[in-house]
Amino acid sequence: MITVSPSILSSDFSNLEAEIRSLDSAGADWIHIDVMDGVFVPNITLGFPVIRAIRPHTARRFDVHLMIDRPERYAAQFVEAGADLVTFHIESTAQVKKTASLIRQAGAAVGLSVRPGTPAQDVFPYLEELDLVLVMSVEPGFGGQSFLPGSVEKIRVIRREAMRRNPELIVQVDGGVNEKTIVDCAAAGADSFAVGSTVFKSADRAAAIRSLRERAEAVYLRDL
Ligand code: DX5
Ligand code: ZN
In what order do the strands lie in the sheet with 170-174? Predict the structure, then answer.
C-alpha cells in the first residue's frame, strides 16, 4: 500500500490544530512529525508537549521522525506522547538494536533512517527487526530542499534486499519529494512518502496528496 505522510514541518505552527485537521480531511495517510534537537541536525523543532497536544485532533498514524542524538534516551516517551511509528537515525546511536526494542516494547512500529552519505548496506543487518527504512533524500534538518538523485539507487538496493529478508518492510523516502521525484522513487521500490513543501504549497492539499499517491501507485516496483 502506498502511503503519503505530509510533514508538519512545513505547516503554520501558530495554528497546528487547524493544520492537523486540514491534513486529515485532505486524506493524508499518516502525519509525519520531524523532531530535531539541534545536535544531530542544525535545527530545533518540537517535542513531547506538541505531539501530545495535536494527538486528539486526528486518528491518523503519527509517523515520528527523530533527528536527535542518542534516541534510546527518549524513544519510549515519544510512543507515550502519541507516536504510532518511531523512526530514528542509524548515525545517531551506537545502540540500534536496543533503541528498536525500546520502541517496540513501548507499543509502536520501528523505523531506521539513513542520511544521504550513509551506505544502504548499513541497514541490512537490521532489516528483519524493522517495520520501515527511511531513505533521506536531502540532508536532514530543513524542509524545502532539492531531492538528491542518488537516493533512487539506494531505495532500489534496500528494496531488493528486503524482498529476501523482510518482504513486508516499508521503504519510505523523505526530502524533496514532488510529482516528478516520486515517480522514480516508487518505481525503485519506495512505498511511503514524507512530503513537506509539495503538499503545503499546494492550493488544494487533497488534490496534491491524491495525485502523489496515484503517481506512485502507477509505477510501484516498475524499475526494480
Ligand atoms: C527534513 C525533514 C523532512 C522535511 C521534508 O529533515 O525530515 O521531513 O520536512 O520537507 P520537503 O518535502 O519540503 O523536502
Ligand atoms: Zn522527516
Answer: 3-6, 192-195, 170-174, 132-136, 109-114, 85-89, 61-67, 30-36
Give the residue extent of every domain in the chain.
3-219
Q: What is the pLDDT along the chain (224 residues), one digit of tens a residue?
A: 999 999 999 999 999 999 999 999 999 999 999 999 999 999 999 999 999 999 999 999 999 999 999 999 999 999 999 999 999 999 999 999 999 999 999 999 999 999 999 999 999 999 999 999 999 999 999 999 999 999 999 999 999 999 999 999 999 999 999 999 999 999 999 999 999 999 999 999 999 999 999 999 999 999 99
Pocket test for ligand 1, best of 32, 36, 174, 212 (most atoms within 8 A of CB): 174
- The grid coordinates of residue 87 equal 523512526
User: Which residues, judged by CB distance below 6 Å to any ligand atom, belong to the binding site of ligand 1?
Assistant: 7, 9-10, 32, 34, 65, 138, 140-145, 174-177, 194-198
Please give the CATH topology (third level) of the domain spanning 3-219: TIM Barrel (3.20.20)
Q: How far apart are CA 62 and CA 182, in angstroms?
A: 21
| Residue 34 a catalytic site member | yes
